[in-house]
Specification:
Blueprint (H helix, E strand, L loop, with lengths): L1 H21 L4 H15 L4 H36 L2 H13 L4 H14 L4 H18 L7 H16 L6 H10 L7 H28 L24 H17 L1 H7 L7 H19 L4 H32 L3 H11 L5 H16 L2 H22 L4 H10 L10 H10 L3 H30 L1
Length: 448
């Protein structure tokens, strides 16, 4: 009976977490309060649950992933404050044009996130550019967060092989894989996410125009005037170079070093070196802007703390959830699911991503508690661990529920409320990726 009450407590606390986040409350205090609900309904000592399990879960996540968050934020801020990211984004916009407003927003998001820039930083970089594009296209500004979320939160975070984003790095620790694991599955999932997501956003724009809805100024937004005449025509190329360096150092360099028996890099070490390489390259390119570089490093350092704290608080909540009887009941049900182990993993990661409000948090907790069983069952039937890696990465869609830290940041930057813009974020970054992850895991597990 306690297990079922505990499971009810998990569901109740999750509903409370989503409700408070939807209404703009900080997850830094909401997450521990919801963790207390889980503890009370599970018969745990509340103080121990908070001061031991919750805090330990937060701390372990910070210890494991702070280098990636910190360096990613610094790298992104240097790209932002030196103008490299904006120059690259503007070039893409000039090629595509404001008539294709959605594509003009999505492409820079995809390129920057695949180049290793944190989604938190991308939101700050892309919003001013998207704001100008949507104003020229006379589209409602409230539609902009959905396009940014589609470009930054989904495809390059979950599907495209080789991405340096943290969601794609975490499974390497548990399965001994690399960032480019299961490329075919990743590319198929990319197409399945991209097509309906883009068609949905286009439909939303057409619907807005039919209703006579147009652009409304953001009273909190002050546009930065850039003197294009003082920038060289090839400035955008210098914005592309650091992105290429990061992707190369993460996906190619470790193999070269291992082949020549120089050093064997773990993926965690590779991501640190890749981001350091991106930072060094961006600094060298902008050495004449030395006065900007140190403030950019300061801003990135400070920004990384808020980003990792939002995620760590969600992971702390998940750390309490995973020790209660209700979670044991849920885990048993997930592992006992009929069919492929890939589909079971997809369901587990999605559920836990939703519970923690974080794809990286959900992947971490799911693999920490169940990866050994998944790997054992996969090897017993001759299945490659690469497939387990890619399915885990694909299955963070439910992590973009209203209490997700990146969602909260994006809406704050855009000066939009959940009620105005979350529906588009939900469809493009939550519903479509979740459906695709379940579909792909089912097909690969059943037919391959």
């Amino acid at each position: 009976m306690l297990s079922y009450i505990s499971l009810g407590g998990i569901i109740l606390s999750l509903c409370a977490l989503i409700y408070f986040a939807y209404n703009g409350r900080s997850i830094i205090w909401v997450a521990p309060v919801c963790a207390v609900i889980v503890a009370v309904t599970s018969g745990l000592n509340v103080l121990d649950a908070y001061m031991v399990d919750y805090i330990r879960g937060m701390a372990e996540y910070v210890v494991s992933w702070f280098p990636a968050f910190f360096l990613g934020a610094v790298y992104g801020k240097i790209m932002d404050m030196t103008g490299l990211a904006r120059a690259l984004a503007n070039k893409l916009v000039s090629i595509v044009g404001p008539k294709f407003a959605i594509i003009s927003v999505i492409l820079p998001c995809l390129l920057m996130t695949y180049g290793g820039i944190s989604v938190f930083v991308v939101a700050f970089v892309i919003y001013p550019m998207g704001y100008a594009i949507y104003r020229e296209a006379n589209l409602p500004r409230t539609l902009l967060p959905g396009a940014i979320a589609f470009g930054a939160f989904g495809i390059t975070m979950m599907a495209i092989p080789g991405t340096p984003q943290i969601q794609n790095i975490i499974p390497t620790t548990y399965y001994g894989t690399n960032a480019a694991a299961a490329p075919l599955m990743g590319l198929v999932a990319t197409i399945l996410m991209a097509v309906p997501g883009y068609l949905y956003l286009e439909w939303r724009c057409r619907s807005a125009r039919k209703k006579g809805l147009g652009f409304v100024e953001d009273p909190n937004h002050t546009e930065t005037v850039v003197d294009v005449s003082k920038q060289s025509s090839w400035r955008w190329v210098t914005g592309l170079i650091p992105l290429i360096v990061v992707v190369f150092m993460l996906n190619v360099l470790p193999g070269i070093l291992a082949k020549h028996e120089i050093v064997e890099l773990t993926t965690n070490q590779a991501i640190v070196l890749a981001l350091l390489g991106g930072i060094a390259t961006a600094c060298l390119i902008n050495i004449k802007q030395f006065k900007v570089l140190l403030p950019a490093i300061d801003a990135g350092s400070n920004g990384s703390l808020m980003a990792i704290m939002n995620t760590a608080c969600a992971v702390g909540f998940g750390s309490v959830v995973k020790i209660v009887p209700g979670f044991a009941l849920l885990k048993k049900a997930l592992l006992a699911m009929p069919g492929s182990i890939l589909f079971s993993e997809a369901v587990a990661v999605n559920v836990l991503s939703g519970a923690t409000g974080s794809a990286s948090g959900g992947i971490s907790i799911a693999l920490e508690t169940m990866s050994a069983q998944y790997l054992e069952r996969a090897l017993s039937v001759g299945m490659s661990p690469d497939l387990l890696h890619r399915v885990a990465t694909l299955s963070g869609g439910l992590g973009t529920l209203p209490h997700n830290g990146a969602v909260l940041t994006l809406l704050a930057v855009s000066n939009c409320k959940h009620k105005e813009s979350y529906m588009d974020i939900c469809v493009t970054a939550c519903i479509i990726p979740t459906v695709v992850s379940l579909f792909v895991s089912f097909v690969w597990g059943f037919f391959i």
